[in-house]
Specification:
The protein is an alpha+beta fold. The chain has one helix and three strands, in the order βαββ.
């Protein structure tokens, strides 16, 4: 899964809410047995294995 990171946008940016936040990343990754995350500047790529 590839998604934008909300924390990498300025507070005044109207698109800040379109990205995933740190707490949402924890929820996303918490139920997978193996998780690999690659930070791609404003994006993150998650490899999630059951």
């Amino acid at each position: 899964m590839v998604t934008e990171l909300a924390d990498h946008r300025e507070e005044t940016d109207p698109l800040k809410t379109s990205g995933i936040t740190a707490p949402e990343v924890e929820v996303l990754t918490s139920r997978w047995s193996a998780v690999k995350c690659v930070d791609l500047d404003r994006l993150a790529c998650f490899a999630l294995c059951p």
